[in-house]
């Protein structure tokens, strides 16, 4: 019989409960340690889900086999490099990093150490998201030609004030593209392929007194395969209207999903495929009041659990997880180009990542 895998969590804030709960529930996994700069947060998580509350510097004294990195984005790199240096497999929250070079260093360090690096994009684990990927794989859509992404969310200004890393450009956490829309940038490139050029404009409509970063962005994206996409993203809506992505292929068929309210499992709202057409509306029950972060993260937890279970299986089977560090670097490259275009006021190329980080 194989021994239980020893799991740890570093960064015990809002999203960490989704990781700790998944490890707590998974057969063959033991949550051994929870670490945070703030000992009270580490204790609160360990009290709920097990393991010992430890100082971040002492984490590796507890011999984890794998660690979830749930720190703010700017602290992802140091935590991943440290895990790799200790020969520990690592599952990092999204986005992989704020800077492409940091992501490249993370991928290389894990390769060199022979450990698996996974990145959390749990929306890929929605059945609806997988149906769209299957419609591309089985030819229903043909070649992806056109996509439309809308991320139309609500945040209180206090959200930016509560955690200082969300309010500075250097923290990178406050920008709607990095923190909220990045899940849909990931789906966009999963469906449409390699993005090559973007045009983007940022604005700050609602939260300018609390964050330096954009709360609103609009963009167009051109893909290597010839496809095009439009994107609009904002946290300035009251109430928020959730998120959606639609993809039209060379067969003329269009499929799409909607997430409403934010955090709920998305459903297919458009399946415009000749002979199988159907449609739904995300607002079938009417509009609902904005929900808080705890509810949003709680609704996402089952899909964190699916991705975390898949990562654990990958570690056991000594294979790559479904979303690798290399794969997550692709959405960061797109994010980087969007910010570059917003800064320059011109179309910008998307940095290539595959050539630079050979598989
Ligand atoms: N996958 C998702 O849907 C999802 C949802 C929410 C957040 N996230 C991501 O998770 C990460 C954390 O977000 P959050 O909302 O939980 O943030 P948070 O601010 O609530 O929690 C971060 C925690 O990390 C701790 N921390 C900071 N630096 C540290 C360090 N060097 N060592 C140890 N602990 C450290 C802080 O004290 C805090 O407790 C972000 O990258 C965010 O984008 C992902």
Automatic annotation (TrEMBL):
It comes from the Bacteria. Residues 130-253 form the GFO/IDH/MocA-like oxidoreductase domain. Residues 5-120 form the Gfo/Idh/MocA-like oxidoreductase N-terminal domain. InterPro entries: Gfo/Idh/MocA-like_OxRdtase_N, Gfo/Idh/MocA_Oxidoreductase, GFO_IDH_MocA-like_dom, NAD(P)-bd_dom_sf. This is Gfo/Idh/MocA family oxidoreductase. Coiled coil: none annotated. PANTHER family: D-GLUCOSIDE 3-DEHYDROGENASE (PTHR43249:SF1), UDP-N-ACETYL-2-AMINO-2-DEOXY-D-GLUCURONATE OXIDASE (PTHR43249).
């Amino acid at each position: 019989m194989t021994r239980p895998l020893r799991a740890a969590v570093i960064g015990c804030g809002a999203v960490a409960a989704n990781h700790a709960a998944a490890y707590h529930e998974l057969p063959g996994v033991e949550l051994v340690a929870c670490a945070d700069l703030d000992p009270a947060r580490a204790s609160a998580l360990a009290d709920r889900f097990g393991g010992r509350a430890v100082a971040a510097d002492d984490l590796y004294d507890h011999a984890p086999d794998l660690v979830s990195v749930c720190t703010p984005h700017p602290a992802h790199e140091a935590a991943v490099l440290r895990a790799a240096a200790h020969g520990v497999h690592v599952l990092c929250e999204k986005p992989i990093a704020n800077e492409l070079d940091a992501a490249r260093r993370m991928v290389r360090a894990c390769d060199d150490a022979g450990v698996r690096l996974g990145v959390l994009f749990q929306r890929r684990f929605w059945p609806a998201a997988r149906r769209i990927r299957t419609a591309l794989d089985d030819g229903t859509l043909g070649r992806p030609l056109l996509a439309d992404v809308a991320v139309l969310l609500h945040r209180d200004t206090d959200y930016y004030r509560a955690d200082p890393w969300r309010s500075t450009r250097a923290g990178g956490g406050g920008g709607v593209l990095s923190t909220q829309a990045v899940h849909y940038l990931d789906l966009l490139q999963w469906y449409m392929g390699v993005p090559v050029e973007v045009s983007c404009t940022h604005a700050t409509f609602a939260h300018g007194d609390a964050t330096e970063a954009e709360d609103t962005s609009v963009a167009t994206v051109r893909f290597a395969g010839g496809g095009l996409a439009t994107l609009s993203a904002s946290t300035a809506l009251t109430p928020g209207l959730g998120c959606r992505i639609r993809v039209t292929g060379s067969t003329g068929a269009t499929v799409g999903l909607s997430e409403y309210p934010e955090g709920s499992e998305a459903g297919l709202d458009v399946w415009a495929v000749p002979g199988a057409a159907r449609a739904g509306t995300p607002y079938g029950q009417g509009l609902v009041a904005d929900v808080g972060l705890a509810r949003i993260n709680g609704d996402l937890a089952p899909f964190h659990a699916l991705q975390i279970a898949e990562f654990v299986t990958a570690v056991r089977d000594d294979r790559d997880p479904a979303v690798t560090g290399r794969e997550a670097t692709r959405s960061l490259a797109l994010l980087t180009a969007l910010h570059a275009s917003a800064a320059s006021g011109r179309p910008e190329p998307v940095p290539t990542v595959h050539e630079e980080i050979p598989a």
